[in-house]
Amino acid sequence: GLSAAAALSRHPSATGAHLRSTVALPPAFTAPLPAPSVLGPVSTSDGADRYEITQREATLEVLPGISTPMWTYGGTFPGPTIESRRGRPVIVTHHNELPVPTVVHLHGGRTPPAHDGYPTDLVLPAAWSGHGQHARSHGMADARAVVTDTRRAYEFPLDQRATMLWYHDHRMDFTAPAIWCGLAGLHVVRDDVEDALDLPRGDHEVPMMIADRAFDADGRLAYPALDPTLTGEPGVTGAYLAGVLGDVILVNGAPWPVHEVDTGVYRLRVLNGSNARHYELEAVAENGRPLPLIQIGADQGLLAAPVRHERLPVAPAERYDVLIDFGGVPVGSRVRLANRLGTGRTADVMQFHVVRRGARARIPDTLADDLPEWSRSRATVTRDLAFRAGRMNGRHGWLIDGRPFDPGRTDITTRLGDIEIWRLVADVHHPIHLHLVGFRVLSRGGAAPLPHDAGLKDTISLRPGESAEIITRFDGYRGRYLFHCHNAEHEDMGMMANLEIV
Ligand code: C2O
Ligand code: CU
Ligand code: CU
């Protein structure tokens, strides 16, 4: 048979294949940018803030006038945003009223292993309660997989730098379709370091979950293979194998929205919540002049100093905290946020409409001074890890060092507190994510890191054929964690491994 790499080359893009919507799509820049709702705690006593989220089906109006059934956290897409303070524990109880088992992972969270959302640590559907047989008949014979609870209290210490995290489904083999169906939301952590900087806030701080989707003629979400593990080789389409790309760009769940702004400075908190699509963002004024995107933070919080970008690449699961200054833009004109990697309509993301004058704001020259600096000489272990296509159980898959994910196998054992250098190499585009820890990028392609590699990261975008070195310290908790490709289809097709901290 064909190797996975050969199968990929039959498709137009090595990073994925397009799904085409068959429903009529709306014109760009007409839908207002939604602000994801902020969830209120149900209690704030006993030293923790407690929240409740019901995972349920909901029919949402994503495209104007069209009904789209989705899987949701609390009935919305994106799910509700949780706002918290560094070091203040948060307990989120998830109730599963969906028809499928789920797993919640707080991406970027410094979370003990029991609450990190291991892919077989399931919350079963409420409709299954009392039916252990039902779980087994769905192929969950693994004892670890069979839990009786249809609700789960996830505890997050959040003893970590201020940044924007996100929570999403993480069930083994089914993460990609679950996120596609809507299981994703934001979680913002704040701290005193950030407060002292007096950054834009209130309506001048704009969370932006960018995600592509495709819709069928009835307005339902289109997706190529709902159950790749059961369909086997013929069901694993090239689109699935490479990663699923939609032709509609949503920001906070609205297609190509428009957002009214003043001539002040805005803080855009960007998450690429797409399964497989990479973006290269560029803000362009009506006169064709680019507006710099001034990066102040990375996945794991503020940089030491701002970094100006004319174009900013954003891989799946990465977050970029950027300031944009509309001060030089005439009132009444528009600024387009474009995607340089897109073609046709996927070359647009959203638009800012400058409608009034605003207060001038200062952009700080220095930001945070609490970034970890790990020198090469302090690393005790150097590991090589290859992220490449290959065969898994006789079909195409994505492998780490030649092996697909196995929840029963420990791939790497590391000692708590050790500093390690990982040398990563990729065949096609793979955004590699480590749970629990933040890391620094030491080198890329044998040369210095790129400007957007600055700061503390939890996801690094490896471009086709590229290698990179990252350095981190495995501290926080002992136990089993994951690292994986965050192309969600690659992750489901094996590109994930276990890291045991002892
Ligand atoms: Cu968002 Cu295991 O990841
Ligand atoms: Cu994660
Ligand atoms: Cu990948």
TrEMBL record:
The superkingdom listed in its UniProt entry is Bacteria
Gene Ontology MF terms in the entry:
copper ion binding; oxidoreductase activity
**Keyword hit for Oxidoreductase:** yes
Protein keywords: Capsid protein, Metal-binding, Oxidoreductase, Virion
Matching entries from InterPro entries are given as: Cu-oxidase-like_N (IPR011707), Cu-oxidase_C (IPR011706), Cu-oxidase_fam (IPR045087), Cu_oxidase_Cu_BS (IPR002355), Cupredoxin (IPR008972), TAT_signal (IPR006311)
Catalytic activity of the protein:
4 Cu(+) + O2 + 4 H(+) = 4 Cu(2+) + 2 H2O
- Domain Plastocyanin-like: from-to ranges: 59-119, 397-499
- Give the family per the record: Belongs to the multicopper oxidase family.
Indicate the quaternary assembly.
Answer: Monomer.
Its name, as the record gives it, is: Multicopper oxidase CueO
Gene name per UniProt: cotA_1
